Amino acid sequence: MKQQIDILAIGAHADDVEIGMGGTIAKWIHRGKQVVICDLTEAELSSNGTPNLRKEEAQHAAKILGVGKRINLRFPDRGITGSHEQIKAVVRVIRQYRPRVIFAPYHIDRHPDHGHTSRLVREAVFSSGIHRFQTGEEDQAHIATLNYYMINGIHTPHFVVDISNERDQKMDSLLAYKSQFRPDNGVITPLTDGYTDAVMARDRLFGKEVGVQFAEGFMTTKPVVIDHDLLGEK
């Protein structure tokens, strides 16, 4: 069943979207926007937790942010290849939900899956707008704007979103992934060593740059049209 939503946020693993734009999602949902999260893999190769536990944590995190729909395409973890079949699968999602804006991980990232996802989504967004691109289903071409959120690393953003009021909500969504960030019994990974604090420190840094407490940074594929926000209006 086709829908018309505002935002489709795509990540390689459950928790990617929350890390990069959890506060922005919460902000837009507060404003009545419809958001769908799409995880590409079940993160079955993660050092801590299990796929089933990760699914439970992902649904809990989505609920904290107010997201009503979260799907998983079950691509193999470390197997995001950008194959024609994977492109078609993402195109089907885009054409089903028909979002106005799509978000994917920024391609410069220490985790190869995030870079592969970035390139795969860009391919899918382009292909989705081609009327003769076939997915095996009766779907119609759909064009959407593509932007990128950051997972690992700090890059000079093209634009930021003030999440000062959503800071706690974002942190709660991250802490829903206890198996990843604060496991009771598990191996030490970069995620278990103050990772969530580092994420919020980055948001604080971006916020400081624009005179607010916390902000999330984004990269664009084309210039952003400014209507009234340049004047500081809400």
UniProtKB/TrEMBL annotation:
Stored SUPFAM superfamilies: LmbE-like
Gene3D superfamilies according to UniProt: LmbE-like (3.40.50.10320)
Alphabetized InterPro entries for the sequence: Bacillithiol_biosynth_BshB1, GlcNAc_PI_deacetylase-related, LmbE-like_dom_sf
Entries under Pfam families matching the protein: PIG-L (PF02585)
This protein's name: Bacillithiol biosynthesis deacetylase BshB1
Organism: Jeotgalibacillus marinus
Gene name linked to the record: bshB1
